[in-house]
Amino acid sequence: MAFFFSEKERNAYICYFTLYEILNRSFTKTNALYQEIKDEDDWEYIIPQLMIIDPKDVSLAREKVEKNIDLLNKFDIIAKKGSKFYPKRLEKLDGSPEFLFMRGEPSLADLPVISIVGSRKASKEGQNKARLLSRLLSERNIIVASGLARGIDYAAHLGTYDAGKPTIAVIGTPLNKVYPKEHKNLQEYIGSTGLVISQFPPGAPVQRWNFPMRNATMSGISIATIVMEAGETSGALIQAREALKQGRKVFIPQSAIDNENLKWPRKLVAEKGAHKFRTLGELMELLNNQNLLTSYVDKDKSEIITYGEME
């Protein structure tokens, strides 16, 4: 049984996800109807009238939602938007999830967070640089977030381990599921030492459109997103575009911009809020100059540029 901050929040959760089940797990439709009934105590009787459905269907959906709460761990948190545990940066954005499921330390999401994202099929060099960058940021008390996927995400999470610091995994599955399956131990480790965040209720199916949705959420908790390597159809690009819409900073390697096989880097870097970098040292300096590294200590540029080339 998960932890709710109040009984009122628990009731709101059951109302919201009862609608979610009835509306074939469409967040868009659920959000619209929830706004009409969220302040009604007798919502279970109002829904059949609004939707012209059998009251038994509402009762069955409610029973399913209540039963699925038991799929979560005892100390998992279900945070409603506006509540104590809901990330403050994300809360300010239009369209942010009404509820989040959190395993670990929720306060991490309100610290300076930078996302490192990229291709699941990243090169070995790209993964090594993502891991190094993640360590460098972690050592400066920046919380690194990524999506627990293969490739760049995995490397980013490992970099925080190298630094002995916590990380945030924003996942595209419910907390009670793992994707990919080989990252089960990593997800459990992050849940016990850092923070795992999901916007999908326990028992919900894992669908491909979950992952672009989680990218928008990951960007929403972050002050910046760094795209290490990404093809034309990578989910990392969805996050980069969402980040710019949200008024966040985006950083793109010059090597991607120079790659004639890719169109997205040249389009993206022309937008307000997007920046390019050649080396990890140059990137760290950019982040520092824009006050995104609150604990940055290396002031000697000759030392900074030894961090590695992004070629």
Tag the structure with descriptive keywords.
311 residues; alpha/beta; ten-stranded mixed β-sheet; 45% helix
Question: If you had to describe this structure to a student in words, what would you say it looks like?
Answer:
It is elongated and about 60 Å long. It contains 14 helices and ten strands. The protein is 45% helix and 14% strand. β4, α6 and β5 form a beta-alpha-beta unit. A ten-stranded mixed beta sheet has the order 1-2-3-7-6-5-4-8-9-10, sandwiched between helices. It starts with a strand and ends in a 7-residue tail after the last helix. α1 packs across α2, α1 packs across α4 and α9 packs across α10. The protein is α/β, with parallel strands linked by helices and 311 residues long.
What's the story with the biggest beta sheet? 10 strands, mixed
Runs in which pLDDT lies below 50 for 5 or more consecutive residues are 295-311
- Strand coverage percent: 5-15%
Measure the end-to-end span. 49 Å
Residues in helices, as a percent range: 40-55%
Judged by helices, strands and strand pairing, the structural class is alpha/beta
Radius of gyration: 20 Å
Shape: elongated
Strand order of the largest sheet: 1-2-3-7-6-5-4-8-9-10
Number of contiguous helices: 14
Strand tally: 10
